[in-house]
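Exercise 4. Each item below gives a protein and its sequence. For each, produce the structure-token representation.

Item: Aromatic-L-amino-acid decarboxylase (Planosporangium mesophilum).
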Amino acid sequence: MTPEEFRRYGHEMVDWIARYWENLENLPVTPDVRPGEVAARLPEQAPETGEDFTAVLADLDRVITPGMAHWQHPAFFGYFPANTSGPSVLGDLVSAGLGVQGMLWSTGPAATEVETVVLDWLADLLDLPKRFRSTSSGGGVIQDSASSAALVATLAALHRAGGGAWRTEGVRREYTVYTSTQAHSSIEKAARIAGIGDRNVRLVEVDEAYAMRPDALRAALDADRAEGRIPALVVATIGTTSTTAVDPLPEIGEICREYGVWLHIDAAYAGAAAVCPELRWSHAGLEYADSYCFDPHKWLLTGFDCDAFWVADRAELVQALTVLPEYLRNAATESGEVIDYRDWQVPLGRRFRALKLWFVLRWYGAEGLREHIRSGVATAQRFAEWVRADERFEIAAPHPFSLVCFRLRDSNASDDSGASDDSDAANDSDAANEELLRRVNATGQAFLTHTRVGGRYVLRLAVGAPSTQERHAAGAWKLIQAAADDLDAG
Ligand code: PLP
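Answer:
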């Protein structure tokens, strides 16, 4: 493809994306496809000779759009949001065009330095502790995901817990990891990949608000120490996946300090809220953390993949991960004056992801980002009011951010079931909630997901797509009420 051809088709492609965004509201939020249906629309083999690009463009409408769940749809309320935005897409486009591989400072000085500065900016915007800044002992780096951030934190924690022995010996000793029963599965996965194993991950009990109980954490640490195991890492969550519970960092932080354990904070979704001063209460106690991450690709208008990960002491992280083969040696690295981000992550290679974040911060400014978060929170709080006002429903957990967990009440759901005992009634009620969700999603006009809390089936409505307005949440609420009416009518 010549630059001139690229220009022509590139313009068409940008037009296609703009049209897609303009038309999103008219599409069903989730596709009506069966497994294999998309693949069946593709030829069995790759083309022998090159095709005209217009054929590729046509297939976007024929194959891709009808086979997609539309995460940017204003009525997409499932999981957590996966935002993108114009400046983010353009940043990715430039990154792809530059095709830079920024594993070392010397292989992409601007890629490295823009990333360092942008993460310092972001640390300021979230009001993170000073020691996370590159101008202090720490610094930030972009990982592909919060899962990778958890893995890197686990490796650094093992390095610290083993007094350096982990690097040479591996996981010869019994290292342990602590997180709450509500923590994201990526914490257990990281421990497994790091060789710690499921049996040495302690899932600490939570309180009635689904936040980690510090007394239970302490008891677990004591029990392991008494048996000769080495507590390596505590992962606290700001905004758990099921319900957005916030673990009590000040108490957990004190305990980690006392036991000399690495404290990683997973704020994958809710961290973005800290751009708003009124939501920063959730970060109280962050000064105890050794590492912290959140996903701008969830709720800060930056497309996947973009996890912002900070450490308080970059030297510890680099010592844990660095391996310097001859073929990567260069004068800049040896000067000790530069950051080589390859030492801050698992892969060697890395693309220029900071560009999209830089574009987003410059386009929206702090004010624009705050507005986005505030509008999501306000819409979710309004939705919670509607739920509360309908006596058939109940709120299932505190909802400080833009996620509301709710369900049909047991009595309502199981009135006519003839259930013989409490557990039958609970099962019927869970089944009614599941059926309600199925009916709402089947309309294609909104999409919600579910979780289980306290063993019970709960519906989740997460607000955060850039184009979502209150009227879209109101539309979803109407569908939910209509489905409840139908269930009532039998
Ligand atoms: N941590 C929390 C609290 C999450 O909610 C999620 C995803 O929803 C993750 C980690 C994993 O995020 P990622 O896809 O960036 O690995």
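Check: Residues 80, 145-147, 184, 186, 237, 240-241, 266, 268-269, 295, 307 surround pyridoxal-5'-phosphate (CB under 6 Å).
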